[in-house]
Amino acid sequence: MSARDKKVDDFFKNANSEIKKVAENLRDLILKAEPGIEEVYKWRHPVYSKNGEVCHLMLARDHITLGFWRGNELDDPKNLLTGTGARHRNIKVGNVAEIPKKEVTNWVKQAASLNKK
Q1: Cα angle vertex 76, ends 74, 68, to 5°?
Q2: What is the band of 2 on the pLDDT scale with cuts at 50, 70, 90?
Q3: Pairing of strands 53-59, 64-68
Q4: How many Å apart are CA 16 and CA 45, to the nearest integer?
Q5: Is the pLDDT assigned to residue 15 strictly greater than 90?
Q6: Taking CA atoms, which of 37, 54, 72, 96 is between 20 and 30 Å from 112?
Q7: Pseudo-torsion of CA 69, 58, 101, 110, nearest 10°?
Q8: Got the DSSP string for 49-96?
Q9: 30-76: per-residue pLDDT in tens?
């Protein structure tokens, strides 16, 4: 698993317990999905990069948003990713049971791979 950024630890400290669990689960999935992915705190939220930005987590009161800069290029047969922008897509997760673990892992791998091109 890739290294954790202390600033990201601090970012999640004040979240309510359920949202904190969601954040930690998503964070673990991202860090395990792609060897060498870098976790940093910038633009006021956790950002994950490998050869360019891959994804980011945004904290809300009742959910975590997992966003992908090149989300429009990701395989999403279940249409879980939302967004109307030219490229960015995201998924909002309100509790741990809602996390589509297999899809998140695949999206992170695909997004990191897109940055190689």
Answers
A1: 45
A2: low
A3: antiparallel
A4: 16
A5: no
A6: 96
A7: 10
A8: ESSSEEEEEEE-SS-EEEEETTGGGS--TT---B--SSS-EEEEE-SG
A9: 999 999 999 999 888 899 999 999 999 999 889 999 999 999 999 99
Lowest mean pLDDT segment, chosen from 14-28, 48-62, 80-94: 14-28
Which residues lie across from 68 on neighbouring strands?
Answer: 55, 89
Q: What's the token pair of residue 50?
A: 């490998």
- Beta carbons within 8 Å of 2's beta carbon, 6+ residues apart: 31, 34, 35, 36, 37, 38, 39
Judging by beta carbons within 10 Å of its beta carbon (0-12, 13-18, 19+), is residue 61 exposed, middle or buried?
exposed
Give the phi and the psi of residue 49 in degrees, each rounded to 5: -135, 145
Which domains does the chain carry? Answer: 6-114 (3.90.1150.200)
pTM of the model: 0.91
